[in-house]
Please model this.
Amino acid sequence: MGIDDIIIDKEKCVRDGRCAAICPSIFHVSSESGGYPVVLDSEKEMCMGCGQCVAICPAGAITNGNITLDTCPAIEPDLTINEKQMIQFLRSRRSVRVYKRKAVEPAVIEKLIRIAQYAPSAGNGQEVEWTVFNGRARLDNFVNAAMGWLKKEIQENPTGEIGSYAAHHAILKDWETRKLDGLLWGAPALLIASSDQDSCEAMVNITLALSYLDLAAPALGLGTCWTGTFNEAMGHNPLKAEIGLPPNHTHHYAMILGYPRYPFLRLPPRKPPVIHWQAK
Model:
């Protein structure tokens, strides 16, 4: 990625070597430099612009291109969650499939996406983009198209991966007999994260961004659900064309978003993890 310039304020620098410890490819400390970090011009192109150097310096002595102290707010210890809070926060995450008939404000969706931009990305590329549909009219059209694809797929290939899956039959039956939307679940908003399909890290970057958004949503009073079957339908025309992702982009999962109709009150268990400890 590279940066325009890395500035080290020697009047502030306490020469503790932290910047060189976390980024030895960029920062060099030696007796010749008097213990001050030195950045070689030939190595600036290796910088990913992650901001680690600015974030770790206790003296605020480093500016990395447009990453300055002004753009890096200090961590507030009072906001750090403890272990018990962390466990409840993660365990209380639920897939929401029953929503209020209430639109999600565009500003709230944008706030969530801005939070998701802090998800890790390969090489700090930050290449994930978002396609947002906010309103039931377009989503109803998507559901109709996806159900049509599902019915056709089951009829033409009943023993295939789609046709042999009992859940797909149940979704289609519920739709045909009582118009129950088992794809987007009546949610008011649909978000699709996408990235350059030629990137070997696209799927990982997309999944991490969606996960950040997924976990952040409840703090804004919202619920989410990863839409597996709708995601399968998205790969087929005409739905793919109608959704209109950016050119040369791939997606992984679509995510629905809305205000939950009912709160969850308990923390269901999960199967114990399978751990393969290796000998030392």
Summary: The mean pLDDT is 94. The longest helix spans residues 136-156. Residues 121 and 205 are 5 Å apart (CA to CA).
